[in-house]
Amino acid sequence: MSHSETFLTVGLQNPDKVSPSDLVKLYIDWKANYFSIERFADDYGITSSQAAVSINAGSAMHDAHTAWLKAFTTHFEANNNNENGN
């Protein structure tokens, strides 16, 4: 298996340099390209426990962003409807 673009751009060897956006990218990479945490961990050069923590954090951040976007969009649409008399 060739490495994903995320693998080539997000390194986990320096965790203090990993951003929340990087964790979301890792989560999406895991969902799209891996069948096991063990393989993900091997490719990224980390332990399975570190992989699980990273994937879970990325998932939580992805879910939080999705919830924010839904709330923001709903609020925006409600305001537009009120302004347009709908």
Quaternary assembly: single chain
Please give the number of β-strands: 0
Distance between the termini: 53 Å
Average pLDDT works out at 85
Main β-sheet description? none
Percent of residues in beta strands? under 5%
Radius of gyration: 17 Å
Tally of individual helices? 4
Q: Could you list the spans in which at least 5 consecutive residues all have pLDDT below 50?
A: none
- Indicate the overall shape: elongated
Architecture overview:
- There is one protein chain.
- With 86 residues, this protein is mostly helical.
- The chain has a domain at 5-61.
- Helices cover 73% and strands 0% of the residues.
- It has helices at residues 5-9, 20-33, 37-44, 48-83.
- Helix 3 (37-44) packs across helix 4 (48-83).
- The protein is elongated and about 55 Å long.
- The model has no long low-confidence stretch (mean pLDDT 85).
Q: Helices, strands, pairings?
A:
Layout: H1 5-9, H2 20-33, H3 37-44, H4 48-83
Helix pairs in contact: 2-4, 3-4
Question: Could you name the key traits of this structure?
Answer:
single chain; 86 residues; mainly alpha; 4 helices; 73% helix; elongated
